[in-house]
Amino acid sequence: MSAENLIYALLGLPLLASALVLVFRNQPNLRDGQAVLLGLLSAAAAFQLYLLPTGASLTLVELAPGLTLTFTPEPLGKLFALVAGTLWPLATLYTIGYMRGAKEKNHTRFMFFYAVAIHATMGIALSGNLLTLFVFYEMLTFSTYPLVTHKGDEAALKAGRVYLGILVSSSIVFLLFGVLGVWAMAGTLDFVSGGILASKIDPFYVPPLLALFAFGIGKAALMPLHRWLPAAMVAPTPVSALLHAVAVVKAGVFTVLKVSVYIFGIDFLKETGGSEWLVWVASFSILAASIVAMTKTNLKARLAYSTVSQLGYIVMGAALATPLAASGAALHIAAHGAGKITLFFCAGAIYVAHHLTDIKDMNGLGRTMPITYGAFALAALSIIGVPPLAGAWSKFMLMGGALDNGYLVVLGVLMVSSLLNLVYLGEIVIRGFFAAPTHKIIGIKEAPVAMLIPLSITALLSLALFFAVDLLILDFGG
Amino acid sequence: MSALLDPILGQWNYYLVIVLMMIGFYAVIARGNMVKKIVGLNIFQTSVFMLYISMGKVANGTAPILTGDPNTVYSNPLPHVLILTAIVVGVSTTAVGYALIIRIQESFGSIEDDDIIAMLDDEEETS
Amino acid sequence: MMQHLPILQVLLPLLAAPFAAMLRGRDVAWGIAFITTGTAFLISIALFLEQRALGTTMVYELGNWAAPIGIVYVIDAASALVLPVISGVGFIATLAARQLVAAEIDPRDHSLFYAAWLLTIAGMLGQVTTGDAFNIFVFLEISSLSAYALVAMGSGRDRRALPAAFNYLILGTVGATFYVIGLGLLYMLTGTLNLADLAERLPQVEETRAVFTAMAFIALGLFLKMALFPLHFWLVPAYAHAPSAVTALMASTATKVSVYVLIRLIFGVFGVEFPGLADAVGLAILTLGIAGAFVGTLAAIVETDLKKLFAQSSIAQLGYMAIGIGAMSATGLAAAFLHLFNHALMKGALFLAIGMIAAQAGRATMGTIQGAGKQIPITMTAILFGGLALIGVPLTAGFISKVYLVRALLEQNFWLLAGLTFISSALALAYVWKIIEAAWLQPRPAGAPELSETASQYVPAWIMVFATLGFGIYATPLVEAAFAAAHVFIPSTMGAN
After folding, report:
1. Could you report the predicted ipTM of this complex, rounded to two decimals?
2. Which end of chain B has a smaller Cβ tally under 10 Å, C or N?
3. Residue C418 contacts A where some CB pair is shorter than 8 Å
4. CATH number for the domain that contains residue B109
5. A98 three-state secondary structure
6. pLDDT tens, position by position, A290-323
7. Number of domains forming the structure of chain B
8. Structure pTM?
9. How far apart are CA C392 and CA C380, in angstroms?
10. Across the interface, which of C148, C163, C181 has its CB nearest the CB of B96?
């Protein structure tokens, strides 16, 4: 298929899936089966697009003169599309197991918005200009709101308010401001290799403009705009897994990375030193979130703060403004995506099988759920950055980028953070395998197979990515 | 003395207009009785009518009715025509205003602003 | 026939009104209103297309008397853009009125209702087409007087409509009289009332005290009529207690026409380069506009009656239009025209949907719609989309107007003002989401009235919703038309697109 057709496919398949969900709302097997099938197709399409050379561009509609909905897959976007496209069918399969296992209500509504959210994610990944990116960014926020508030109780509504309040208001007040500011100054919104702002803007204005983006992209969960992410953990675990480990948060950091590479331009940022402050903000975010994560005993809350911390890595990669760090950040989108989705899958599996959410109650559970805990351990090690797992590469490249720029402190931050990761993720594994069981559970009691398959695959993916890393390293020049 | 008074005496009609305007406007704003508000509105509008009419006056001009004498100086007829329209509008406004006041009296038993506001506040609390 | 369209546009509803009043029987009156507004809509579309095709100003001389002796009707890019808004909303609102009026108004009054309805539409269309400043006043009063009566007709269901209509009458008349005073001064200075003529002669008398006074009176009078903060207090009760159909019509059109007249007078007569204009009037409008945006939004957040809530939101949205005007640039004016157009669509959708709820439940409050998402999903979805457009979510019309509004501010380097505009529009999320959450995510309380919906009830609102989305996804022709309208007043050389 041509690149144009693949773009249509990647955008269209999730929409088709959401439409079919409504059509088959009374036939659960058909409804869920088609979503997995279309997910596999979109994974294939994403992979094929990833291998095609760049250069294709597709304009859907001209909103207003000079403002178009355009899709131009470039290496970074194709990588993100590949990550989202591959994890979608796995997550859908997992969702089916979870929703049936945990007996959640409103299954159809859930599946519908789940697919719409993937559509929005694909739109973000393939966007060819800032306007397109903003349009799908907002669509992603609104389409995931019903997923966050799925339970419909007072706690879910309150979390929904935090979620929407932070994400929408930051995007309108800062992000849209930044987008229109770029439009006013550069006269274009297209993503161009090397950036569009060099020579268009006084270097003095680079830090404030970058701040509009860094804090406007609330989805990147940079502290202090991270509150929505822990709040969103009231959602059913498949949402936390796909959206708040992969699609939504990765859309956020992806946007930060994309803006700094294709709007500001790495060289321009480095020359002007406009992103220096962001290095420190990201460092703070990495360490503070790790420390908060250690204090949480709710498993999903701990994973959420771990995500906030890991997102800091990617923002850091953008802020360091060297090709190596940017490649590391891009790789971390994939590596952390595979690792964190596994962790959330495991958390959901534990909940469905044993209705446990607190880490303190999970002593000895590893012996009852060996597959789940094995996958958990593998993913945790990847996120900590232990070879031979995918997370090692991205962390290594980020450190290299920091050294290139002479940020020795940042090197320290990354190392300390790895140690903290080891403490708060390792605790769960150690309690699972070595602590004396608090519950009398005899023999093996795992979650449904529909959940075990995806979590095993994603765990093995972390391992495979270490060896296939050449495929995922992007060249940002330098 | 006349240097000081001439601008005032020469434009006495405009001063009258302004005085009337302010009286009318004050009545509209300050009176709570709705009938008085309408009366104030009428005075206010009348002052504007006078503004227009007096600007149409041409020195030594007669009423703008064709006399056949080419030397006749006529006043400007246009403001008169405009004000005829404005009077019609003013009368209609007054009529609608009084009609509303009658309905308010029937419905609330009062035409005092304050009474009605108090009644509405009570309603708001109970509803 | 074609060359008479400008006068037919106004004359048709004006002449149809007495027929609607005389022919008793509510279906007959409605039928007349429906056919008349439908034809008026077609005429305005034809005028719009013709003007766009010609690209020039079409002047229609009444009775073949040329200006400045006679009155002329002027169809230029600006009036051609605003006419379809009024007649279009008028048409859709008439479509909805059949249900709404049947539910809310005494059957004996129906023919009179539709007579006043047609008159107010005729008055608004007249204000837009006429090229004579005094004629504007006459049409202003025609539309206002019938609007007072329409608001008062809400009294059968809600007696608070009466004092609301009375206050509206007092303040509306004061505003119109201010306008006439300013006009009188201009006439004294120039000897003409034709807008084009005035624009030509005013530079000879610029920098005189009389001309500034005239400008101040005219601007103040129109601020009152367009409900610019802090002269907006008449609007909320009038919209809230009027019959639902009237609220929908007026919220989408009445204040917009005054915005249009303000633009016509300020830019078309005085001109953007008039000494003192950009500084004094521009700054005043900008300040009041942003203040209104905040005051209206904050008041809407705490409001529980939906009609009042969206009336407060209208104050805020008028503030945005004022900001566009106050930017004193072509882009700013284009943004004001865009928002005038788009806001008419979204508020039309919202008030038509809310009207259907109010007509059934007596009142539309947060309590009425709690949990209503399951009972009347199609109506509530219309409200959802209308609300998203108010926030300015992309792919809705509200996004387009906001983009151009901010663009206008950034062109002038008003960064702070742009930031404030974003903050106030983000605050709109609070009052919109309050409704969405109550309707969709909370359970229906026990004892709440049963709500139902049929196609005839939600179709009018959905027509507006589709227009809102359509002009959000493909706005290029509209944006071009808005810039053409702006360039009527500010030549394109003075502001880059």
Report:
1. 0.90
2. N
3. yes
4. 1.10.287.3510
5. helix
6. 999 999 888 888 999 999 999 999 999 888 888 8
7. 1
8. 0.90
9. 18
10. C148
